[in-house]
Amino acid sequence: MNPAEANLVDLVQFFFMGIQRGCIYAMVAMGFNMIYNATGIINFAQGEFVVLGGLMMVSLTMALHLPIVLAFILTVLFVVVVGVLMERLTINPVKQPTVLRLIIITIAVSIITKGAAMMFWGKGSHYMNHFSSAEPLDFHGATILPQTLWIMGILLLVVAAYVFFFNFTMTGKCMRACSINRDAARLAGIDDRKMVMLSFALSAGIGAVAGIIITPVIQMDYTRGAMLGLKGFGAAVLGGLGNSTGAVAAGVLLGVLEALGAGYISSHYMDAIALVILLFVLFIRPSGIFGSSEAMRLKEF
Amino acid sequence: MKGKNSAGLIALILAVILLPYIITNDYYLGALIFAGLNSLACIGLCMLMGYAGQISIGHGAFVAIGAYGSGILTASFAWSPWLAMFCSLIMAVVVAIVLGIPALRLKGHYLAMATLGFASIVHVVSVAAVDLTGGPSGIVNIPRPKLFGYLLQTDTQYFYFVWAVVIIGIYCAFNLIDSRVGRGLRALHGSEDAAASLGIPVTWYKVQVFILSAVYASVSGSLYAYYVNYIDPGPFDISYSVLLVTMVAVGGLHNIWGALTGAIVLSLLPEFLSFVSDYLRFFGIEYQQDYDTLVYGLILLFIMLFLPEGIFPSLRGAVAGIIALFKKTPRMSGQNSGPIAGRRFSGHDK
Q: Which in B20, B65, B133, B174 has the greatest CB count within 10 A?
């Protein structure tokens, strides 16, 4: 293999790694967007949904030996219940919400979830079997894990379900109406409180799916929530907060940039790369690369 | 400075002077030193969050800058601890300016995430920059500073030293709050547009208080490094930044005394919990130190849901109630006690 070819293989390899992570960031970002659209809240516990999904899936498949499909459904249901409980117990009762108070409440929920996860699953990282073979496939000299293909496929399914739900179902349209103008939606007879609850449920569900599909590759432990949440938020901002098509593209882009940075600059600073990008986007163009400057003027940053 | 605050400060000074005579156990004195270090960082953060209304989930990073600056300059370059502390303070100021000017244009959630991202970056660098920070194994042999020719060797000496710095910090904070800048900050907390229309340089004031809070955090970090003589990235991850916010929020955002209360209570909480765990075992509950995080989270959530002004206004209300009981006069509600007083900040200047 000549050097030029080897370089190309490296590039493809980093690209695959980036896509794999990027799909997860995209899903976390979609979760952020759902709650943001319904409530204007950034949920600092978003990363914990991912961790809970991953850890629950580990318990169901590795300890209880349930079939993957059943475990998948049960795990998503479990995290959805956690999300709904979070909304009912901590967000809904707040009568005079201020931004500061809501931020601290979601932080408190993330601390509690993290503490509970440590209590139940311990401090170690948990191994989980890949969905299919763990044997990497060869792609012109570079390798790709079958799990990466699963991740990409499931992201596509989630996006398809998302588009269908928000464009072709009544509930989805009601949610969109609420995110555009809550008062007007209420006047049209939409129960906005229920929509808020639903947004937490869906957001928790997407987080759980992300946690389930990434766990075989990264080995989940209870501390990962904060970093996953931050990078997912990076993707959400990069794509324009509230814009979920943007979030998917930005998530994959962020994952690829991170992987390229880790490959060509320094793997020690890998976690910092996505965060530096996040800060630059926030400072220079908080409406995101896909957000219009017109919308930016209307929003408060 | 107003009368009540002066009285509080004098009470605090007396308590600090007397405490080492009451608590002779070095372990508990150590816990109080850590409480003092956290208090210092929280006082700065309280000015930023409670008075200026700007959230930062990244102040652990400034503590880390202070600690690493002091640690590297004294242990690797044999600088004097005082000079090292001053230089790391300058470094924290520079970082605060570079970060603060763009970041403080953001509001609410965006600012929170930006500062959290910043704290995360600093932590990644402290682990990864092995040549500078020693990486995960950290820096050892950090010396204690000398004060007036005396080496601050014992825990009692260091206790007095740290709490003297805290008291100076509180004094400066009150002076700032009662100054033109302090009034400006409270105005922009209410409404930035209204404050700007009254001629308050909104961005500059916010950056100023951000810098000041970074200075408090950096000094706290330096004193931490000199006390434990050893630093590694472990204590400075983002959960430390979150813990600082927790302390300020639990104590009471809108009052320096609240931040101090929160910092002391939550710093001593692990000691209290390990003390209580013996009794819990008696009831068949096996409490482990690992559960501390969970307890912190539950306390924070409880306070935010039911006492959003923090525990300090309630404590003050209770104390005022008891005093009123002794005076046998009907208690004036809402005048200077209870949560309402907290919401109006600490009153107006005379």
A: B65
At A35, which CATH number? 1.10.3470
Q: What is the ipTM of this complex?
A: 0.87
pLDDT at B333 over 50: no
- B96 Cα distance to chain centroid: 17
Residue in this structure with the two tokens 């500078």, named with its chain if needed: B132
Rounded to the nearest 10 degrees, the angle between the axes of helix B202-228 and helix B59-71 is 50
Distance CA(A212)–CA(A70), nearest Å, equals: 12
- pLDDT confidence tier of residue B342, bands split at 50, 70 and 90: very low
Whether residue B12 contacts residue B174, with contact meaning beta carbons closer than 8 Å, is answered with no
In chain A, residues 84-103 whose CB comes closer than 8 Å to chain B: 90, 93-94, 96, 99-101, 103
Residue A293's pLDDT is what?
58
Residues 2-31 of A with CB under 8 A from B: none
Higher pLDDT: B331 or A94? It is A94
SS3 for A61? helix
Q: In terms of CATH architecture, what is B3-343?
A: Orthogonal Bundle (1.10)
User: How many folded domains does chain A comprise?
Assistant: 1
pLDDT grade for A298, boundaries at 50, 70 and 90: low
Task: Give the Cα separation of A189 and B153 in Å (integer).
Answer: 71
In a domain, A237, yes or no: yes
At residue A300, does pLDDT exceed 70? no
CA distance A119 to chain B (A): 7
Q: Is the CB of B312 inside 8 Å of chain A's CB atoms?
A: no
**CB-nearest partner of A286 from B110, B116, B294:** B110
